[in-house]
Amino acid sequence: MNQSELNNKLAQIKDKLIAFEQPAANRIYLLCESENAFVVNRFLFEQVPARFVIATGIDSDNCFEIIYHYSYDQTGCVINLKAFIRDRDNPSIESITPFLPAAEWIEREIHDVLGIDFRNHPNLKRLILADDWPEGVYPLRKEVKK
Amino acid sequence: MNKSIKKPVLAVGPFHPLQEEMEFFQLTVDGEIVTDIDVRISYNHRGIEKISESLQFDQVPFLVSRICGICSASHPLAYVQAVEDIAGIKPPERALYVRTIINELERIHSHLLWVGLGGHFIGYDTVFMWAWKYREPVLDLLEEITGNRNNYGNVKVGGCREDVPNELVPKILKELDQIEKKTDMLTKAVLDDPVLHARLKGVGVLSKEDAVKYAVTGPTARGSGLDIDVRRDDPYAAYADLDWNVIVQPAGDVFAKAVVRLLETFESIKIVRQAITKLPNGPVAVEVKEIPPGEAVGHVEAPRGETFHYVRSDGGNRPVRHKIRAPSYVNVPSFKASCIGQHIADVTLTLAAVDPCYSCTERLAVIDRHDKITHDYQALLKLSREKTALIKKELGLPGIKTEDLQIG
Amino acid sequence: MDWKIWSLKKSPWVFHVNVGACNNCDIEIVNCLTPKFDVERFGIKLVGSPRHADALLVTGVGTRQAVKRLQEVYRQTARPCVVFVIGACACGTGIFHEGYHVEGPVDKIIKEVDPNAIIAYVPGCPPKPEAIISGVVKALAVL
Predict the structure, then answer these.
(1) Residues B316 and B390 occupy one common structural domain
(2) B40 to A125: CB separation less than 8 angstroms, yes or no
(3) DSSP secondary structure letters along chain C
(4) In angstroms, rounded to a whole number, what is the distance separating the alpha carbons of residues B97 and B283?
(5) Mutation test of the interface with chain A: which of B85, B227, B297, choosing the one with the most A Cβ atoms within 10 A?
(6) C17 in contact with B at a CB cutoff of 8 Å?
(7) For residue B27, is it within any domain?
(8) How far lies C92's CA from each of A138, B57, C62, C108, C113, in Å?
(9) Least CA distance to A112: which residue of chain B?
(10) Which residue range(s) make up the domain with A47?
(11) What whole-number distance in Å separates Cα of residue B217 and Cα of residue B222?
(12) Which residues of chain A lie closer than 8 angstroms to C98, CB-CB?
């Protein structure tokens, strides 16, 4: 697919998105609520199909964000799916590892450093923090200084 | 119910010859065949993403250059590309060429390092010595250009910190010829050896389907038939101006990955030659004022695969969020797919074929949940070398004397 | 001179431990073995277990997860032994000193189990093989 065909393909998932931004020909940002992230991720990985790169967890102003980054190598387009988790007290989102093994580690990492729960993750064990790291301290949250 | 007895295997494993390591993979075996793997990584976690938030934009390249010694050029480049994207900065053309030269020289010495390690794991310590010896001229070149054998500190937001002096060009070209000759010799020695064909083919196969599911990149992907390379797919630096090939091999085994790395080294030499001869005149940096609010991604093709950085700015002088993804973060988990079903004699080699960059991800080893050692690294390494010796015998070849280095 | 010290000086067997390094120092250490630098001619040998070692070569900042492991390795190392702390990270945590997962530097971790440990520092980022060899040889001469 060329870039305009890719854009048309992505339009198929429009109803699950809050917004579609394209700051450059090869950079796309899709915004959605966390409830729809699973379906959009599945669409990106299986239907487009695009290559999963990584996910970025962010402690944002009044919510948590998880940005899922994909690469559509045929056109060099990076597609970033921003999912907003509005519940700051019990942040949780559906895991995409069941259909995308490549996401296993990063979901575990985000769970470690931001305290976000990934529902139905097959193996949500501690990944990068030490065995004796205190529970409930999430280093990448803004309130944790050094 | 499964009737076979499952024994955990413990390999305290350096995959670089010196390192005795700390945990990480829990392998379960059925007899001598691997049946499952679980991973725990933490020994190398330094909390770099958080440190980045306390540094100014122009200090971050020095931090990320030290994520990993062998991807020392690719991390800062991916980062500055993201920041330049946020700020709409276009570095001068000469800077793009210098960046290309440094990154390709790094690819050359990184691939040679890998060839040496691969040799060590199967008992070809002569290959190890040769490969690491022939790396040295590349490191010397990098030292002449940037002032350091490693941690070049060469990129900054807006261009490069140092230029390649024009007087150095003839020397670089001459060195490249020598490096090419030696690489050619090493390649022939490796690829024409029937023992290596027997030892490496069919071992540690990562199918194309699994390569996609685990989203692998770099030689790990290209050795499984995936035709992807950031330099061609989303060109950066000067790659779009130069003539070179992406190397892809379909078989997915360790041999295929070795072929990809060796042939890529020749392509890198080609790229550096062209970049050096076509070096445009002009400055190597533009002035950078502030970084406005915004977000962007930057990615480059490091020796191990795609290095990907995401940066968010709020208009201040520090990044608000900096996400770093090294290629090994996706390549190493694929070890699960390529290792299950393998004999334990092939475990170290299979993992090495992914060319994990330990600091990029973590240090890896295997632990027994009952703290019982059934096979430590030394034992696994011995098994690997014994398999090579057996193959030599079966092929009726005279025993090739490989120095027994006892280095690990 | 104590014959154990004499044999250590004559032909030190070293064991390498990485407690959170970027691999640059580690690779430069391995480079010391390769033909260009060839430390084996000085009698320096790398061994596979701390029990056979006279000296430790430690690289890395000392991450939280690595602390106990490093202390265990130190306890297992035969005495007398010298701890060579290689690189800016191991000497003083370098650029990572603010990291939330960093518990080093290395001398602090070692001194928790042995306040009288013999420690020699080879700074650099990474120190070149020449510097590592020079540092090791110099320290042994002083012992």
Answers:
(1) no
(2) yes
(3) --HHHHHHHHS-EEEEEESS--SHHHHHHHHTTSTTT-GGGGT-EE-S-GGG-SEEEEES--BGGGHHHHHHHHHHSPSS-EEEEESHHHHH-GGGTT-TTB---HHHHHHHH-TT-EEEEE--SSPPHHHHHHHHHHHHHH-
(4) 11
(5) B297
(6) yes
(7) yes
(8) 26, 24, 10, 9, 18
(9) B42
(10) 3-90
(11) 7
(12) 146
Report DSSP state, residue B285: B
CATH of the domain at C26: 3.40.50.12280
Residue A27: CB atoms within 10 A of its CB come to 18
Find the residue in B nearest to A125 (Cα): B40
Within a domain: residue B399?
no
> Where does residue B35 rank: exposed (0-12), middle (13-18), buried (19+ CB within 10 A)?
middle
Do C95 and C60 contact (CB within 8 A), yes or no? no
Q: Do C100 and A130 touch (CB under 8 A)?
A: no
Residues of A in contact with B212 (CB under 8 A): 51
Residue A104 to residue B333, Cβ atoms within 8 A = yes
Query: For chain B, which chains pass the contact test of at least 3 CB pairs under 8 Å?
Result: A, C
Residue B84, domain extent: 48-329
> In the predicted model, what is the mean pLDDT of residues B145-172?
91
CB contact under 8 A, A130 and C98: no
Q: Which of B314, B329, B344 is the last residue of a domain?
A: B329
User: Chain A residues with CB inside 8 Å of C65's CB?
Assistant: 130-131
With CB atoms and an 8 Å threshold, state whether C66 touches B43.
Answer: yes
For residue B303, which of B97, B159, B114, B63 has the smallest C-alpha distance? Answer: B114
Q: What is the pLDDT of residues B287-324, one digit of tens each?
A: 998 999 999 999 999 999 999 999 999 999 999 999 99
For C102-121, the pLDDT digits (tens) are 998 999 999 999 999 999 99
Residue B21's pLDDT is: 44
Distance from C-alpha of B14 to C-alpha of A129, rounded to nearest angstrom: 21
B126 touches C at CB < 8 Å: no
Question: Which residues, at least 6 apart from B2, have a Cβ–Cβ distance to it below 8 Å?
Answer: none
Residue B406 lies in a domain: no
Identify all chain C residues contacting B18, using CB atoms and an 8 Å cutoff.
16, 26, 29-30, 46
In this predicted structure, the answer to whether residue B222 has a pLDDT above a threshold of 50 is yes
pTM metric for this prediction = 0.90
Q: Determine how β-strand B305-313 pairs with β-strand B294-302.
A: antiparallel
Q: Do B132 and C30 touch (CB under 8 A)?
A: yes
- Kindly indicate the confidence band of residue A124, based on its pLDDT and cuts at 50, 70 and 90: very high
A146–C65 CB contact, under 8 Å? no
Q: What is the rounded CA–CA span in Å between residue B169 and residue B276? A: 7
CB B39 within 8 A of CB B59: no
C20–B133 C-beta distance less than 8 A: no
Q: Are C81 and C113 a contacting pair, CB within 8 Å?
A: no
Q: Write the CB contacts of A132 (distance below 8 Å, at least 6 apart in sequence).
A: C64
Q: Distance between CA atoms of B159 and B150, rounded to whole angstroms?
A: 19
Nearest chain B residue (CA) to C26: B18
Interface A-B, measured as beta-carbon pairs within 8 A, has a size of: 88
Q: How high is the mean pLDDT of chain B?
A: 84
Residue B46 to chain C, least CA–CA distance (Å) = 5
The answer to whether the Cβ–Cβ distance between C100 and A144 falls below 8 Å is yes
Q: What is the DSSP string of B324-357?
A: EE-THHHHGGGHHHHHTT-BGGGHHHHHHHT---
- Tell me which amino acid residue B293 is: P
Separation in Å, CA A77 to CA A41, A42, B81, B114, B299: 16, 18, 15, 31, 11
Tell me the C-alpha distance between B186 and B135, whole Å: 12
Tokens standing for residue B115: 């060839």
**What single-letter amino acid sits at A112?**
D
Compute the distance between CA of residue B248 and CA of residue B263 in angstroms, rounded to an integer.
Answer: 10
Q: Are residues B273 and B378 in the same domain?
A: no
Reply yes or no on whether the pLDDT at B406 is more than 50: no
